[in-house]
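CORE FACILITY INTAKE
Project code: CF-77B
Contact: R.S. (postdoc)
Sample description: multi-component assembly, two entities in total
Requested service: structural model of the whole complex
Turnaround: standard
Below are the sequence entries exactly as provided by the requester. Do not edit them.
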Amino acid sequence: MNTRANLNTAQTTRSRKRFFLMPWLLSHLQSLFYSLGHIYRNPANNLMTAAVIGISLALPFGLYLMLENAKQVGEGWQGSPRISLFLQDDVSTTEAEVLAADLRKLSRISSVEVVDPDAALAEFKASSGFGDALNALDANPLPHVLLIQPAFLLDQADADKLLNNLKTRNEVHLAQYDQEWVQRLQAIMVITQRGVIILSSMLAFAVIVVVGNTIRLGIHNRREEIEIGKLFGATDGFIRRPFLYTGMFYGLAGSIMAWLLLTICFTLLSTPVSQLSALYHSGFELSGLNLAGSLLLLLTGIVLGLAGSWLAVRRYLRQMDSSQ
Amino acid sequence: MITFTDVGKVYPNRHEALKQVNLHIPKGELSFITGHSGAGKSTLLRLIALIDRQSTGQILVDGQNLERITGGRIPYYRRNIGYIFQDHRLLPDRTVFDNVALPLVIGGNRRPEIVRRTRAALDKVGLLSREKAYPATLSSGEQQRVGIARAVVNRPPVLLADEPTGNLDPDLSQEIMTLFERFNQVGVTVLIATHDIQLISRLNHRIISLKAGVVSDTPATLSA
């Protein structure tokens, strides 16, 4: 009984709410279909606008995805703070072995691997593809290298101390973290990230301008309609609404195009990238737009489209008011 | 209904369209405003419809001081006024029905209500059979009647017409005036700007003459 009574009240409130929302919803639907109709009647121009928006959106999103992928590559190599010890050129293999044995006794070092110059050269020849060029060298230019794995759980300060210690030894020409290039990569990535943000802002602005300009032309073509509407009591909201929907559709269509572009590009790239990463014995796979990214892309398009049309209509309405 | 007190209007190009106009138009009256072109007839109507603002003086419409109606309140004020243009200003890409329905759509009416009242307005001007036609396919007399149907469709208490018979021959003009009289009979305050003295002198209504922005009033009984 009670549940049924509750159900009934729920139904009445719902229907009452629906009744109140009706005119509002109806007028929105009206504007929506009205603007869809306008787009439908001029497909070529609207498609071009959408394409421009699509490319403007695809560029920053594509760069952002590339950056995310590069970050993943960088993180994959971050785990081992190995130290590479490049010895002086005149250090012989025996001397290198002695030094390695010495170092192995240190508690802060867990293992030392001696890389023979000849072996290193052979490996480099095999993997780099510069084999013929390297054959032209008279002598092996590579020094002995000791690859030092510091003790497990050595913190950064101790690792730095160890590095500085190693640098002071006579036999050592150069001591550096293996991960230094990772840090450089990260530094470069921070710069690239800034670049992407700057580029994105500029392209976002471009999208707003493109939508705004297209809407401005639309307003121009429907000036008579707007003026008549205003004389018969149309509010600014009423006039704005179909243009906002049009702008929203431009943004949506543009972002769908951008999504397609990105999906095509990443599909084309994924096979060669997998092949490349296989050469580096890495399981790295190029990741394209996921669900969240796709939604963000759509939302960005819609918001920029709305912003562009809103600015265009606002400007027009202000001009109209001031001319009266 | 409409009261002008010392109203003046100077356009930005320093043209003085109205000088100290004092005028009272009671509710439910049909009056004509005459004068040569440039005498300020259109300006007077435009001030009432808030298309323009007076430079000096005060205008009251239905007890509201027009100076106080600004910004977002203007659209709602205009819904109480039906405006008819000399060149009718119909939208060429919309049917007769859609043109007439515009004020109702703007007013946020529901579809059945829009259909019912639009048809009623078209019926009153005798154009119900042409509802699906486009304005360009109508004669100028018919176009003007569509313009009138659009102005009356949401039953505004005030009807303003700016040279509604300007492009029509005498017979059609008479027809249009009869239409206005019929709306006036159901209580609508009608104000018609026209320079067709011949036509209006045959009708027994108040005639307000504007000469260089100054009013000289002729009551209905005298003009008869």
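Facility notes:
- The mean pLDDT of chain B is 89.
- Chain B touches chain A through 23 residues (CB under 8 Å).
Invoice: internal transfer
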